[in-house]
Specification:
Oligomer: single chain
Order of helices and strands: EHEHEEH
Number of strands: 4
């Protein structure tokens, strides 16, 4: 599984412009960490009809793309309307990408 994490917008958008997305290849993770990532991704995926509208100007948005077995799933949320599950996924990714 390969997970890509990127931030868009916000007041520091010009600073991040052109930066590559952060990438985590789960092949290097222990099996327990892969299981935790699977659980966090499933929890962060919105259920049908559960859109989280964002009304904040200059709010950052985050996109997590999970590529696994030929399938690609993109999860996007704004910092203004972020679910706790999506925040937990971002925190986990930041920690593990920094450890690579």
């Amino acid at each position: 599984m390969r997970v890509t994490w990127e931030a868009q917008g916000g007041q520091a958008a010009a600073i991040r412009l052109g930066l590559p997305p952060k990438v985590l290849d789960t092949d290097a993770l222990p099996e327990s960490a892969e299981g935790e990532l699977d659980r966090l991704v499933a929890a962060a995926a919105p259920e049908a009809g559960q859109d989280r509208p964002s009304r904040a100007r200059d709010a950052m948005s985050y996109t997590v793309t999970v590529e696994d077995g030929g399938r690609s799933t993109a999860l996007t949320q704004s910092e203004a309307a972020m679910s706790p599950a999506f925040a937990a996924l971002l925190g986990w990714l930041e920690q593990h990408i920094a450890e690579q």
